[in-house]
Write a structure and sequence with these properties.
There is one protein chain. This protein has helices spanning 4-48, 59-75, 77-101, 105-117. The chain is an all-alpha fold. It has one domain (1-43, 78-118). The radius of gyration is 22 Å and the shape is elongated. The protein starts with a helix and ends with a helix.
Length: 118
């Protein structure tokens, strides 16, 4: 049987790994969003240029950007799906670990608040 401190350390590692996976997903989404914006600006730069490198974002640009983002998401769907499944497995493992060792989330939040106050 694991000691309480070992359980807490293992749970902390699991939570950290889950947070890293979630962060990786958000990075991919940011990359897709930014790339879609760049693609839209590049495709429509000549029709939208007013003066010295000033642009206006039109409803047509927004539609084009959304289409580009959908295309990029489709292209990266394998990577996103794999990370989403991994995230769900990690969440399930954390929940099972909490149930097995009777560690509730409220205690974690109190512990983190106590560490932050120190």
């Amino acid at each position: 049987m694991k000691s309480y401190s070992e359980q807490r350390a293992m749970l902390a590692r699991m939570v950290k790994a889950c947070a890293e996976t979630r962060n990786h997903l958000s990075i991919i989404e940011r990359q897709i969003r930014k790339r879609a914006e760049r693609m839209t600006i590049t495709a429509r730069v000549k029709t939208r240029q007013y003066g010295r490198m000033k642009f206006t974002w039109t409803p047509a640009d927004e539609r084009q950007c959304q289409e580009n983002a959908a295309q990029l998401r489709f292209e990266r769907r394998g990577e996103v799906d794999a990370l989403t499944r991994k995230l769900e497995r990690q969440k399930g493992a954390i929940l099972a670990f909490r149930v097995r060792y009777r560690i509730n989330e409220d205690a974690d939040l109190r512990d983190q608040a106590g560490e932050a106050a120190s």
